Amino acid sequence: MKKNLSILLLIISTTSFFAQGTDYLVDSVMIRNIFTESLARGASYDWLNYLSNRIGPRLAGSEGDKKAVAWGKSELEKLGLDKVWLQPVTAHHWERGDKEQAHIETKFGKFNVDICALGGSIATPASGILAEVIEVKSLKEVDSLGDKVKGKIVFYNRPMPPENIETFRSYGQTVDQRYSGARVAGKYGALGVIVRSMNLKMD
Following CA atoms 114, 128, 98, 185 in sequence, which dihedral angle do they give, to the nearest 10 degrees? Predict the structure, then answer.
């Protein structure tokens, strides 16, 4: 009886193993087909080109944003998806003002700097800002300096860490300077902030 039971269990186990193996092969073929279809006949670059060059900038709440949403809905409907609909959302709208200008004055002379205002940031007074620049590498460093940044411009200069194979992980470890830098420096009385580009350069 025990021998027959052992044989039965072995047959069940083997059958289950081969069933799982068959499912795996079927899934692998399907995934490969999806990749092949996307790589050979995909429309991703055409969509990106249309969004970038035909619709253009798409800041939240802007006219370009509305056009992009309508276009996206239309494209999904063309793909034959069973249900496509829009949901109402609330977005804070931000308009960029006049082109920004900045320069640094040192004992060696005056140097113009290419800058771009961060979306949602507080506008610089029309008369501009003239203040000492203090360099930091992190939000924690600003917290440690505290009132020492009052009346100064805080310069966040932490590059993306180069040791990650996935560069987006490096970006995620660095971008807090951009989305929280002004808030953290502002609570200690800083007049403004400058945030470096999110890249791997060490300068």
Answer: 70
Domain boundaries defined on the chain: 2-78, 102-195
Residues of the chain with pLDDT under 70: 1-22, 24, 119-120, 202-203
- Right CATH for 102-195 from 3.40.50.11810, 2.40.50.180, 3.30.830.10, 3.50.30.30: 3.50.30.30
**What is the amino acid identity at position 2?**
K
Q: Which residues contact 100 (CB under 8 A, 6 or more apart)?
A: 115, 116, 117, 124
Q: Torsion angle, CA of 51/52/53/58, rounded to 10 degrees?
A: 80
Q: Tell me, yes or no, if the pTM score tops 0.70.
A: no
Long-range contacts of 96-101 (CB under 8 A, 24+ apart): 96/59, 97/123, 100/124
Tokens of 84: 């496509």
Q: What are phi and psi of 197, to 5 degrees?
A: -65, 145
